[in-house]
Write a structure and sequence with these properties.
Order of helices and strands: HEEEEEHEEHEEHEHEEEHHHHEHEEH
Low-confidence stretches: 1-18
CATH class of the largest domain: Alpha Beta
CATH superfamily of the largest domain: ATPase, nucleotide binding domain
Helix content: 25-40%
Number of helices: 11
Structural class: alpha/beta
Largest sheet: 6 strands, mixed
Strand order of the largest sheet: 10-6-1-2-3-16
Number of strands: 16
């Protein structure tokens, strides 16, 4: 395998009880950089800090860094506010330059598998093989076969993110995928508080500014369907800018206010013209994930849906999704069982935006 095998590794596996080395989780999203650092506290976890810094529009588009100097400034501002931060970091990738594929292979030894994966990748990866980094993880092993999660990303994407972290004075130690961090964070910080019905799967929906991450996690904790989609609040912002002649900042403020302002939520254009096409597109992707799960694991129903991300509080989104699917839809707080080392009890932005960063911070357990 390439260098990615040392840097990028799936993290969804149940965490063990090894000594946790604090690791700064850095989630570089399209609208903000989120960071989180945790430490062991008995059998649970303690929050050292969590913070976020907004990014200008077009700084990161579809997971790719377009304005590296602005991203670096945001990360440096976060580090300056938390001078006791760890000097090693974990970051994650998503978007069209990242490919995941579940494949079936004959049972092989670890050495044989590495050689075979390199051959299989040429069939499944739509990029020049010399331009990508590869990794894999064994999901399931039978006597004569194995199920493999193949992971590939463009080398330039990985290096562009790692370079920002190095320029900020940190050592990038772990690279992961947004989707796998989402699963890891849910397994550790949310699942214990929201037990799913017996023999049922959980649907994770992380809705951001430009990307939608969807994962179906089986009853045994293994990821089934995992996929990124080009869908997020940017489409809604554009509609608000066009309809009301708003600036980008005014449109963003409208969405922020709409989370708690009844007059915004009751806006007739929002209810009848702006939200419905966006919601329909979102539901189309969610239903596709559910259908895929039913086809691959017909004995398991999807028992609940967990929302996260910067757009999870869009007005009417949660209630309409629960009505249209219909399955229970929750918007949990991943910090609810985390004791606060800072004693402040305050977060700079909505808690559901930190699930990927928390999943990254957990990688200190595995590094």
């Amino acid at each position: 395998m390439s260098a990615l095998s040392a840097l990028l590794h799936p993290s969804w596996l149940t965490l063990g009880r090894e000594r946790h080395r604090p690791l700064l989780g850095i989630d570089m999203g399209a609208s903000a950089v989120k960071v989180a650092e945790i430490q062991r506290s008995g059998k649970g976890w303690q929050l050292r800090f969590a913070d976020c810094e907004p990014l200008p529009p077009q700084c990161i588009v579809d997971g790719q860094i377009k304005q590296p100097e602005r991203l670096l400034q945001a990360l440096q501002a976060l580090l300056a506010r938390h001078p006791q931060h760890s000097k090693t970091a974990a970051f994650s990738l998503s978007g069209p330059a990242v490919i995941t594929k579940k494949i079936q292979l004959a049972a092989l030894s670890e050495l044989e598998l590495e050689d075979q994966i390199a051959l299989e990748a040429e069939e499944y990866i739509p990029f020049e093989i010399q331009d990508v980094n590869l990794d894999f993880h064994i999901l399931n092993r039978q006597n004569d076969s194995m199920e493999i999660l193949l992971i590939a990303c463009k080398r330039e994407l990985l290096e562009s993110h790692a370079d920002i972290i190095r320029q900020a004075g940190l050592q990038p130690q772990v690279c992961d995928l947004d989707l796998l961090c989402l699963i890891n964070g849910w397994q550790t910080f949310i699942r214990p508080n929201e037990p799913t019905p017996a023999n049922s799967a959980t649907l994770l929906v992380n809705l951001g500014t430009t990307l939608l991450n969807i994962a179906v996690v089986s009853a045994n904790g293994q990821p089934g369907y995992i996929r990124d989609h080009a869908l997020g609040s940017r489409q809604l912002l554009q509609e608000l800018k066009t309809r009301y002649d708003y600036s980008h900042e005014q449109a963003e403020q409208w969405l922020i206010m709409a989370e708690s302002a009844p007059q915004h939520q009751a806006d007739s254009a929002w209810q009848t013209e702006i939200l419905p096409p966006f919601l329909e597109h979102l539901l189309q992707q969610v239903r596709q994930a559910i259908q895929f799960h039913k086809a691959s694991a017909p004995e398991q129903t999807v028992g609940n849906l967990v929302l996260s991300g910067g757009c999870a509080r869009l007005p009417l989104l949660r209630s309409l999704m629960a009505e249209r699917l219909p399955i229970p839809v929750s918007l949990p707080n991943p910090f609810v069982n985390l004791t606060d080392h800072t004693r402040s009890g305050k977060l700079p932005c909505a808690p559901e935006r930190f699930l990927v960063a928390l999943g990254l911070a957990l990688r200190g357990e595995q590094s």
